[in-house]
Write a structure and sequence with these properties.
Blueprint: E1 4-6, E2 13-16, H1 24-29, E3 32-38, H2 45-48, E4 52-56, H3 70-82, E5 86-90, H4 97-110, H5 114-122, H6 132-143, H7 154-170, E6 197-200, E7 206-209, E8 241-243, H8 251-254, E9 260-264, E10 271-276, E11 280-281, E12 287-288, E13 291-295, E14 299-303, E15 314-316
Parallel strand pairs: 2-5, 3-4, 3-5
Antiparallel strand pairs: 1-2, 6-7, 6-14, 8-13, 9-10, 10-13, 11-12, 14-15
Helix pairs in contact: 3-4, 4-5, 4-6
Family: Belongs to the protein-tyrosine phosphatase family. Non-receptor class dual specificity subfamily.
Domain Tyrosine-protein phosphatase: 5-147
Enzyme class: hydrolase
């Protein structure tokens, strides 16, 4: 491994640390014309002359939003390569921040998954290893198909919302009412794509569909013996609640500015669940933020009737069923 290394499969793209900038002969040999600095840096103009230079001011910490910069860094790299020169991407050590930006470019250019991009990158620079937060952001970028316009992507909007909710919870506060994202009011979702719906057991009012059940394990995994199970665990260790996205019928309660509380059916006013903006721990051990739940004992799971069938939806016991990937909506 050198101070700067050629990125496998991308002619003219290099990765390194800040000390790469002092190896002028090596930079000249690599025909470097563009330098992307991914770190908080007091710029020494002499160090970066005569290169086209761009700085992305980020720290190497899990909760830093590097994702928002990927479209810009991808364009800078592409412009440098299209101009016939070489591009150096560097951070302090050439390990985490620069690696994440190079991987984002590889994913965008070659439509590869983050794991594939990292494996390929480590062939020339084995120390490359973005921190856990950046790896999750790369997975999200891949899930969004590496778009150039992040702001318009509903997946990115939802991720930003979840970050803000988590920060509010850590500060012991509910999110601002104008920042709460009611998922059934966003996007156009295919009618009939839900696997099941959840209805109030008392009055049969629809409360949610499977597309709004948050993605987490519900396999009855046991908690550590040292942890006392709270009341959202069934005695058999399985999750006794469905964890949900915020939905519009919850608005009167969620916009009160309380950190936690109970949810009532909007039709019969029966207590059907609860919420905690700071989060709740599921039986799988995952801490889910925000923790917005419906009690399995207070709702029925209804399967849609088969296409062309004459029978009505099947009422399922509260312990049956799990979330299926994908999103959809009905009038909630």
């Amino acid at each position: 491994m050198a101070l700067l290394d050629q990125v496998p499969g991308v002619q003219g793209l290099y990765i390194g640390g800040i000390f790469s900038m002092r190896r002028k002969e090596a930079l000249k040999a690599a025909n470097i014309t563009h330098v992307l600095s991914v770190l908080r840096l007091d710029v020494d103009e002499g160090l970066f002359s005569p290169y086209y230079h761009k700085i992305v001011q980020v720290d190497d910490v899990d909760d830093e939003n590097l994702l928002e910069h990927f479209p810009v860094t991808n364009k800078f790299i592409q412009d440098g390569l299209d101009g016939g020169g070489g591009v150096l991407v560097h951070c302090a050590m050439g390990k985490s921040r620069s690696a994440a930006c190079v991987m984002a470019y590889m994913m965008h250019k070659s439509h590869m998954a983050p794991s594939e991009a990292l494996t390929q990158l480590q062939k020339s620079r084995p120390l490359c290893e973005p921190n856990a937060g950046f790896l999750k952001q790369l997975e999200l970028f891949h899930q969004m198909n590496s778009p150039q316009d992040l702001e318009a992507d509903p997946i990115y909007q939802r991720w930003l919302y979840q970050r803000e909710v988590q920060l509010s919870g850590e500060c012991g506060q509910a999110p601002d009412t104008d920042k709460i994202r009611f998922e059934d009011e966003h996007g156009t979702l295919e009618k009939g794509s839900e696997e099941f719906s959840l209805r109030c057991r008392k009055c049969r009012r629809p409360l949610a569909t499977s597309q709004f059940v948050t993605d987490h394990k519900q396999k009855g995994d046991k908690l550590d013996d040292s942890i006392q199970a709270p009341d959202h665990f069934a005695q058999d260790g399985s999750c006794a609640h469905y964890f949900l996205d915020p939905l519009s019928w919850m608005r009167p309660e969620l916009e009160q500015g309380k950190l936690d509380g109970r949810l009532e059916c909007p039709k019969c006013r029966t207590n059907v669940g609860k919420y905690a903006w700071q989060g709740m721990q599921c039986s799988c051990g995952e801490w889910i933020v925000p923790g917005i739940t419906l009690a399995r004992g207070r709702v029925d799971q209804i399967r849609p009737r088969p296409v062309g069938g004459a029978s009505m939806g099947i009422r399922m016991p509260p312990t049956v069923g799990s979330r299926v990937a994908g999103r959809g909506q009905e009038n909630l």
